[in-house]
């Protein structure tokens, strides 16, 4: 019997979290950003940037959910997830070193590193399931 749920949990959780984060940042940045991060989003270009980021997050989150439920996409979705989580955590680490410590972003970085390591673990632990 295939152990499907534990293998897919990393993709399901990160997919849901990233989709929700994308919607949070992108649906109404002029309202959300001042409340959350204490800066105004008035320029059209900045609104476009936040909505473009929302699109990236939605696309990746949907792909990871598809990878959780379609065997042929699992490996590439997991690798994509590892690269995304590692990349965004690296950017947060650079910001932490360059700009200083911020607790919410530090917590996010730790969670992203956990998802990255979990994805690497899954790629190794479930190697026999790939391609079946």
Automatic annotation (TrEMBL):
UniProt KW keywords: Membrane, Transmembrane, Transmembrane helix
Keyword Membrane assigned: yes
Entries under Pfam families matching the protein: DUF4345
Region forming the signal peptide: none
Transmembrane segments: 9-28, 48-66, 78-98, 104-123
The name this protein goes by in its record: DUF4345 domain-containing protein
Species this protein is from: Maribacter flavus
């Amino acid at each position: 019997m295939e152990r499907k749920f534990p293998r897919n949990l990393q993709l399901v959780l990160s997919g849901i979290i990233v989709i929700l984060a994308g919607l949070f940042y992108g649906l109404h940045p002029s309202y959300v950003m001042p409340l959350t991060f204490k800066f105004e989003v008035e320029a059209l270009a900045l609104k476009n940037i936040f909505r473009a980021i929302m699109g990236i997050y939605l696309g990746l989150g949907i792909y990871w959910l598809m990878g959780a439920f379609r065997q042929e996409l699992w490996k590439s979705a997991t690798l994509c997830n590892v690269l995304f989580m590692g990349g965004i955590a690296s950017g947060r680490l650079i910001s932490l070193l360059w700009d200083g410590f911020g607790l919410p972003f530090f917590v996010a970085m730790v969670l992203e590193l956990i998802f990255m390591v979990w994805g690497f673990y899954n790629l190794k632990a479930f190697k026999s399931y790939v391609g079946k």
